[in-house]
Amino acid sequence: MTISYTGSDPIQSAGKALPIHRPMNAGHRQALAQVAREFYERTDPDAETDSLASNITVDDGDLIWHSGGGHDILFTIVEVYGEHVVRAMEKRSGSWVTVTDQWVDPNNAASTAATIWQLISLVTNTSTPTEGEEKS
Fold this sequence. Notes:
By secondary structure, the protein is α+β, with helices and mostly antiparallel strands. The chain has 2 helices and 7 strands. Strands 1, 2, 3, 4, 5, 6 and 7 form a 7-stranded mixed sheet that branches.
């Protein structure tokens, strides 16, 4: 897999440190499926949510969200200078390109899943309200 790092994100440009991969697992996948299910059930009580888990795969410790139409988003957790970030990446011209990073606690699958769900919203340009907010 070819991964390209681009952009001027302050997390990415924190020196020349080599990021250390922190693998995610089935617990992270389950947590993301649950966050997605809860979102869709809040915004559309009649939504079919049983198949949402099939949108998520675990590949070499990374999560891939298959959003349809061939648009996949890869999420990887890396450690940089002792801090962990989840890195959202899209495939462009055959290479994975970093879109954004967000701080996470990789030991908290539920919190990491909530962060990933926010990044999915950002990358796919959808509106995912936070807990207690109504979708506009």
